[in-house]
UniProtKB/TrEMBL annotation:
This is Proteasome subunit beta. It comes from the Eukaryota. It comes from Malus baccata. PANTHER family: PROTEASOME SUBUNIT ALPHA/BETA. GO terms for cellular component: proteasome core complex. One of its GO terms (biological process) is proteolysis involved in protein catabolic process.
Length: 169
């Protein structure tokens, strides 16, 4: 998973060290595009969810699929209240050897795929991923593919910055 670290205030690129990816629980990694304050609110919701899950102390923990379903419901619920969270989210993770990657839009539309993107990445990076991604991709090949996608996005998006945050967690 990779994201640039730019944060805008209106049309001005003001912040250049905004983290858009955060671990969620033991098995998941969440990435977001859009409004940073809404992303912070989502992280508070997820902290409460993980805390509540840990309080059961039953040896089980939420996996990426459960967190993705929760985020889908949160985004859809907020949209129905006409108070949407202005984010598109990518959630990935591994639990018990099962890989998971999903995306949720600001209105609760969601899907799972072998590769996902938000914002401009849906238009510019996904075609590259469709052409070059394959099931037997090595870690090094995956990193090079992500770098290629992020380079294309940097060149084509006026509000992108050349500082990236990447994780393989």
């Amino acid at each position: 998973m990779a994201a640039d670290m730019g944060g805008s205030y209106g049309s001005t690129l003001r912040y250049k060290s905004v983290e858009r990816m955060k671990p969620v629980g033991k098995h998941s990694l969440l990435g977001a595009s859009g409004e940073i304050s809404d992303f912070q609110e989502l992280l508070r919701y997820l902290d409460e969810l993980i805390l509540y899950d840990n309080m059961w102390d039953d040896g089980n923990s939420l996996g990426p699929k459960e967190v993705h379903n929760y985020l889908t419901r949160v985004m859809y619920n907020r949209r129905n209240k006409f108070d949407p969270l202005w984010n598109s989210l990518v959630l990935g993770g591994v639990k018990k050897g099962q890989k998971y990657l999903g995306m949720v839009s600001m209105i609760g539309v969601n899907f799972e795929d072998n590769h996902v993107a938000t914002g401009f990445g849906n238009h510019l990076a996904r075609p590259i991923l469709r052409d070059e991604w394959h099931e037997n991709l090595t870690f090094e090949e995956g990193v090079k593919l992500l770098e290629k996608c992020m380079r294309v996005l940097l060149y084509r998006d006026r509000s992108a910055v050349n500082k990236l945050q990447a994780s393989n967690s």
